[in-house]
Amino acid sequence: MTAAVSPELQHEIEQFLYLEAALLDEGKFHEWLAILADDIHYWMPTRYNRSRRERALEFSKPNEIAFFDEDKSSLKMRVKRLDTGMAWAEDPRTRHLVTNVQVRPRAETAEYDVSSNFLLYRTRLETDLNLFAGRREDVLRRTPEGWRIAKRTILLDQSVVLAKNLSVFF
Fold first, then answer.
1. How far is CA 74 from the centre of its chain?
2. Among candidates 122, 120, 117, which has minimal Cα distance to 155?
3. How far apart are CA 28 and CA 77, in angstroms?
4. Contact call for residues 48 and 67 (beta carbons, < 8 A)
5. 3-class DSSP state for residue 66?
6. Which of 4, 88, 162, 168 is the most buried (most CB within 10 A)?
7. Are the CB atoms for 146 and 35 separated by under 8 Å?
8. How many other C-beta atoms lie within 10 A of the C-beta of residue 165?
9. Residue 35: Cβ-neighbour burial (10 angstroms; 0-12, 13-18, 19+)
10. What is the pLDDT of residues 8-65, one digit of tens each?
């Protein structure tokens, strides 16, 4: 078992994740981009239905098919598209709920492995509604400018995505 972090650090990281959720829900995407490290890897592997004994094969591996496999440049392009006002299908209302935050120090003194559960509610127009649930595995980095998300892996609970698109940020 890894060493526990102080209650103060746990609280600080939780508050950072809540701030991130608020930025996304309020559509402050440029402010959200600012809290991403320049070397971020933003990845959502696909999930397969597997038997219990094959759980290690449940998610696609790096360099296999993924819903997202992005860097900061591609995330900036997505935000730029939203800025045009022409991406109406990609402009929903969202509510990000973050819970069960677990923090573990890494060998690099300024980085932490942070696992959290999420529920993402997305609605658009009168009847278009989606719920996404899962776990995020982040690497957070403390910098002189504040916390930065250096890596995010998004693990959806569902193996079949029924939404019309996956154009939201997790």
1. 15
2. 117
3. 15
4. no
5. strand
6. 168
7. yes
8. 12
9. middle
10. 999 999 999 999 999 999 999 999 999 999 999 999 987 766 667 766 666 667 787 7
Which amino acid is present at 157? Answer: D
User: Is 117:134 a contact under the CB 8 Å cutoff?
Assistant: yes
> Strand, coil or helix: what is 112?
strand
Q: Give residues with Cβ within 8 angstroms of 98, minimum separation 6.
A: 14, 17, 18, 21, 116, 117, 118
Q: Is 53 helix (H, G, I), strand (E, B) or coil?
A: helix
Residue at token pair 């995330």: 75
Structural element, H or E, at residue 39: strand 36-45
DSSP tally for the chain: helices H, then strands E: 3, 6
In angstroms, the CA 53 to CA 44 distance is 23
CB 154 within 8 A of CB 136: yes
And the tokens for 133? Answer: 């649930």
Q: Is the predicted pLDDT of residue 144 greater than 70, yes or no?
A: yes
Tell me which residue of 23, 7, 9, 45 sits closest to 140, measured CA to CA: 9
Answer whether residue 90 shows pLDDT above 70. no
